[in-house]
Write a structure and sequence with these properties.
Layout (H helix, E strand, L loop, with lengths): L1 H9 L13 E3 L5 E8 L10 H9 L2 E5 L20 H18 E9 L1 H12 L4 E5 L13 H10 L4 E3 L16 E3 H18 L8 E7 L7 H14 L4 E6 L15 H16 L1
Parallel strand pairs: 2-3, 2-4, 4-5, 5-8, 8-9
Antiparallel strand pairs: 1-3, 6-7
Helix pairs in contact: 1-3, 3-4, 4-6, 5-6
Length: 279
């Protein structure tokens, strides 16, 4: 059943998906004690987690690295991302966890940025063993939490816009497996998911056994304050349900897990993540 579900999932990678943008599976060929789902960031692709997935595989995990909807296109200037919705991201996360249940006895979900947000969503709503969210996209660093709702509404009412991650490099920005632009509607859909997690966390503890957030003290893009707010809400329901690992010796950056952009940072981060996933 799990392999049939996985085969159907892999069929999502149509002819417009680039070779570097496709879903990755590191499978021992049998059900293992542990399985991991690795969720990439907004505008990135599964290649972002390829090296980390191989390291988990070497530790005895079956590893599933899905391509998020509308990501991974060979045309890096595609406008597909403007069609992203919160509902399809949540549905995909649920499907990925079900696939992982067939790959291993214990399911761990690891995500970065948008993937970190989805790991937090999975922790709140799904029965998993471990969720590790790296720099989760719960809010924007420059925006007070109370204004996230109005901003989301405004972004969705306005026509979608595309903006360069790097206005100087523009389409020349690397790595090649990601998009150089982000969509304002896609950002709003991410914020919708975050609002749902916060609303639920005020009412109930996470369903995950253990949740860990990994934050850069010099974060430049997403809100560390909102991560702390969510952890406090969870721990109010169940003491010790969630924890934060604050990394204080990293340079100002959001992307701290992309080996093709910051290999020096990744060399320091991966051992930390492996420990949190294994623990």
């Amino acid at each position: 059943m799990a392999h049939d579900r996985l085969a159907r999932f892999l069929e999502r990678d149509h002819e417009r998906i680039g070779e570097l943008g496709r879903t990755l599976v590191f499978d021992h060929g049998r059900r293992m004690p542990r399985a991991a789902v690795l969720l990439h960031g907004l505008t990135a692709s599964p290649t972002q987690f390829a090296d980390f997935g191989r390291q988990l595989f070497a530790r005895g995990y079956n590893v599933f690295v899905p391509r998020l909807p509308h990501h991974g296109h060979d045309d890096r200037l595609t406008e597909a991302l403007s069609r992203l919705t919160a509902e399809e991201l949540e549905s995909l996360t649920r499907d990925c966890v079900e696939i992982a249940r067939g790959m291993g006895d214990s399911v761990r979900v690891v995500g970065f940025s948008l993937g970190g947000l989805l790991a937090a969503w999975a922790a709140q709503f799904l029965e998993i063993d471990v969720a590790v969210a790296v720099a989760p996209f719960l809010d924007l660093s420059w925006l007070p939490h109370r204004y996230a709702g109005p901003l989301t509404t405004a972004l969705l009412r306005l026509p979608n816009g595309f903006f360069w991650w790097d206005p100087l490099k523009r389409e020349r920005q690397m790595p090649a497996h990601g998009y150089p632009r982000y969509s304002t509607h896609a950002v709003a859909q991410c914020l919708r998911i975050a609002r749902g997690v916060f609303d639920a966390a005020r009412q109930t503890a996470p369903r995950a056994v253990r949740v860990a957030f990994v934050l850069n003290a010099s974060e430049t893009t997403v809100s560390n304050r909102s991560a702390r707010r969510l952890v406090r809400a969870w721990n109010a329901h169940r003491s010790g349900a969630a924890s934060i690992l604050l990394l204080r010796d990293l340079p100002p950056s959001h992307d701290i897990i992309e080996p093709l952009r910051h290999p020096d940072i990744v060399e320091r981060i991966y051992p930390v993540l492996l420990d949190l996933v294994d623990r």
